[in-house]
Design brief:
It contains 20 helices and six strands. The chain has 504 residues and is mainly alpha-helical. The mean pLDDT is 87.
Amino acid sequence: MERPPFAFLSSVFEDPKDEPLPIRQRIWALGEAYGRPVWAADFPPLRRARLSGLASLDRLDECLRNIQRSQIFICLLHKRHGSSVEIPGTTEKWRASYFELEIFEAVLLGKPIYVFESDIFAPEQPLQELLNTLGPALKLPDRRRSDDAIVKEVERLLAGDVLPNKVDSSPPRQYESIRRLVRSFARGRGSGRTHLTDRPELELLGGRFQADTAPEAAKVERAIAEARAESNKLERLTRLWIAIRELAGAPYGKRGFDGFLPLWNAALGEWANAGSWFGLHAHLYMGCLAALGSMERVRAALRDSKVTMPDSLRIAPHGALASEFYAMAKYLPPGKWHNSALSLAGEHIDGALKRRGGDRAGQLSIRASIRLARGDVARAVADYRRVLSIRTAESEGSDYIGDAESELGFAMLSGRGRTKGVAYQECGVERLTKVGNRPGLLVRAKRKLAIGYVETGDFQAAVEQLAGASDVAIEAGLLDQLLGLRLVAMRLAQKGVDLPPALR
């Protein structure tokens, strides 16, 4: 593999007469001259030819991988901004363009983004609306520039006069940064009140969707299917963004689009799930809580509509909201907002358990986690035992049973059954390893088993679990779990344990 690029230049894939913009070649050449490569889809020509031969989603993934590898993202707003992504195996296209998906990726990854707007930039309405939506994250420039002026600014970046701030990536500093971020967003956007109504305090992208030409349901369904086929959570989110961009033309908050509500529900549910593993736990407009807030608006609309739907689509997503507030609480320091998050989690799981149907074992597992976080170990263990009993009695599969064993064992570490708890955890990891297709559950189980080994003094076994979990987490894009793995590894390092390079 070629060495990691210093910068990524936002892409253009359709050029009239196949003539790349001269400014793009100038920026790429500057990267070569300064020894800080700029990854551009159209330079060198060999790369352009290779990408042109790839299927659309493979081409997209190649671009997104190089954004991850780059230190900075250069967003060039010029007279062309790229083509829409082609639907594999067809001649049709989705609304989302390669350009906007790259911006989306850079925003999600928190890359330093430098935006340059040409004095000949004249965006069409859909692009302008997108830029307005993402404007706060992009920090759009206050004035336009000529091509020569833009090239000079980029040269300053590549010459080293202006560099992205170095980030302390140590686990404690990273954890504290996330805590500050979560707390800041909670104070700024959260009211601390319950979501047990049809008026959530936060919606995805602020609920700013403009009615447009209604999308084709088949295109939305294809995007959701492509997302579900991806095990990597970041790539799954990217494909879900494609689905949501399609659905944006049929806002769930406006009348006349009732037929698209089930698709909104499916896309938002997938977003909340993938976002949770990716670590989007805060009052973020692209976060899990916002997606679930939009989902509640969708389900409220379904309750009011005459469309025949299963009852499960009309009930507020209490279980998912409980899980999200619980996850958020882990990043909130002791005090008002931590207590509020756990309280809201408790209210939502009580709301879910009061209703018949649903995944009862899953709901009990969430309640057990909340109780454990509150220090109510005995009742948490009792709930986890019920979960394992239900999963086993109903033969729900080794993945669910293994997860239940892992969670029960972990809860027992806080009580008197530490040795038996580790045994349960080992059984859970063994089951999940054999299943092989639930990377999130496996990584979480391995991380918690590593903690069990630390508690019982088997440090080498803990290292082995962390090393295996780290590889799986990186492959699957489980950023939320990666930080947890690094924190456990740090505990081992403080005890003088020699760690492999991947865990240092």
